[in-house]
């Protein structure tokens, strides 16, 4: 009896030590129960650190370091379109909230830059050159994520293209590219993670849609069509998955400051309808915060849609 009690005490002490290690930003193996305790106590630890800072006392780590073992601690995310703009910001924000992140896009050199940023913040990330129009390549990305980081909990579909173009000007190649990346890229990526999520009865699919998925914008007819596709598909999928533990969120940004705004070659359409320089438009971090919010909710909560727009340009 005595030795069993002693064993229990030692196990409790070891568990406590592991929690303290985690709190001070050291990586260590913790079980599920310990993770729960840690999450509950984070706010307390943060306020102790803030209090020490107010008194001018040094602490073994800062609050921002603790945040890295934050609300998404232990989760694995795949982010497509992570080489630029919104995807890059989302990948960094997820990592800063504690998730391990697998990045996909075609420009592998840019992915490496994002990985460096994440690693400099003590986050964990891998990157793989991926064209989302190829189901095989997306599957390879997901397999790489699973073997290096663990089962995928979160997929964020950020890969996308947008061309201002008038339909009468017949920029057919740009229509096709948008349909391939914005529609098929999203279904390919969902197809690559869904089976695993269903088997584990948990997962979160986040689609970066657009306010153009809520109403058609002139000059963006095909683009709007692709985003209506994403919205319709997501609504239906959400209902198919409602009882499975897998959630589907659409984030619907208005204009955001990214290279996407400068892609268009149809100058007529661009001059007529691209008003992104007329008001203060969104920053990529505004969208990244919404993604972190959506994926950080308790499992019974579904953030189905978030419309985020520049204040001066409502739909
Ligand atoms: N910026 C806005 O105003 C705005 C507003 C609403 C919604 N959105 C949506 O937000 C998403 C991200 O756009 P963004 O504004 O961040 O533009 P961005 O900076 O140009 O980023 C687009 C990303 O998509 C990737 N991509 C394009 N084609 C791809 C392909 N075939 N395979 C894999 N990745 C591909 C690009 O990477 P590689 O070129 O390296 O492959 C890049 O990382 C898009 O879905 C867009 O529709 C943007």
TrEMBL record:
Swiss-Prot/TrEMBL keywords: Oxidoreductase
Entry-linked SMART domains: PKS_KR
One GO term of the biological process aspect: fatty acid elongation
One example GO MF annotation: 3-hydroxypropionate dehydrogenase (NADP+) activity
Ranges of residues in domain Ketoreductase: 75-257
Catalytic reactions on record: L-allo-threonine + NADP(+) = aminoacetone + CO2 + NADPH; 3-hydroxypropanoate + NADP(+) = 3-oxopropanoate + NADPH + H(+)
E.C. numbers: 1.1.1.298, 1.1.1.381
Gene3D superfamilies, sorted: NAD(P)-binding Rossmann-like Domain (3.40.50.720)
Pfam families: adh_short
Domain of life: Eukaryota
Family annotation (InterPro entries): KR_dom (IPR057326), NAD(P)-bd_dom_sf (IPR036291), Sc_DH/Rdtase_CS (IPR020904), SDR_fam (IPR002347)
A Gene Ontology term for the protein's cellular component: endoplasmic reticulum
Stated role: NADP-dependent dehydrogenase with broad substrate specificity acting on 3-hydroxy acids. Catalyzes the NADP-dependent oxidation of L-allo-threonine to L-2-amino-3-keto-butyrate, which is spontaneously decarboxylated into aminoacetone. Also acts on D-threonine, L-serine, D-serine, D-3-hydroxyisobutyrate, L-3-hydroxyisobutyrate, D-glycerate and L-glycerate. Able to catalyze the reduction of the malonic semialdehyde to 3-hydroxypropionic acid.
Family to which this protein belongs: Belongs to the short-chain dehydrogenases/reductases (SDR) family. 17-beta-HSD 3 subfamily.
Annotated protein name in UniProt: NADP-dependent 3-hydroxy acid dehydrogenase YdfG
Organism: Plakobranchus ocellatus
